[in-house]
Design brief:
This protein is of the alpha/beta class and 242 residues long. The protein contains 9 helices and 9 strands. The strands form 2 sheets. Strands 3-2-1-7-8-9 form a 6-stranded parallel β-sheet, sandwiched between helices. Helix 1 packs across helix 9 and helix 7 packs parallel to helix 8. The longest helix has 13 residues.
Length: 242
Amino acid sequence: MNDLRNIITNSSYISAFTGAGVSTFSGIRDFRGKNGLYNDEDAGKIFDLKYFLKDPAFYYSRTKDFIYNIENKTPGLVHLLLAELENQGRLKTLITQNIDLLHQKAGSSNVIEVHGSPSIHRCLNCGKTYSYEKIAAVVQRDELPACELCGGILKPDITFFGEALPGKAVKDAFRHAAASDLMLVLGSSLLVQPAASIPLETVQSGGKIIIVNDMPTPLDGYACMLFPDLEEFCTLLRQALL
């Protein structure tokens, strides 16, 4: 805890990088853990662009209770702690791979979503956009969202396999990573590129990274501190900041 306190105290530009593990406290499954989403049959089709264009109903049916019920999800201890650190002026930016909007629900405002976001849905035919709230209501009625103007397929602004990551978000993420003298890497397997290279940018720019994950990551050798348990880390971090 003393080491953690010293690192935090001596850091002037702290950022966070979060993965699906931080949302498991909110009852949302991660992707690649032992009970992760990708262990399910046909789970690889959920975010596959080609399959979505063929059968968008498959995506909406499989994500009804994963993405489109945020009103029933409560931000977990990591979401709340990061929002608190931002409010205190300690955390400068929050870079997330997540698409569940829980960081924003917890009160974080400086959030960069490098895998896109369901906050906007877009007609693939005419380009008309729709809010998350409007689409979620349709999905919860077990109906397939369609464009009111042309009847086209509505796709969330989430990055599917087969699509490029949102350029501005990724550029901003690498810029903040380079400026950070400390990055907290929380609940990410760091296996999905290029997002997983973002913490490495901090290291290569002379900063430090702390990795907290229940499985080894490819960047463990670069970390100044490693923790296997997010709950324990949050407890230690709170104590360190008292």
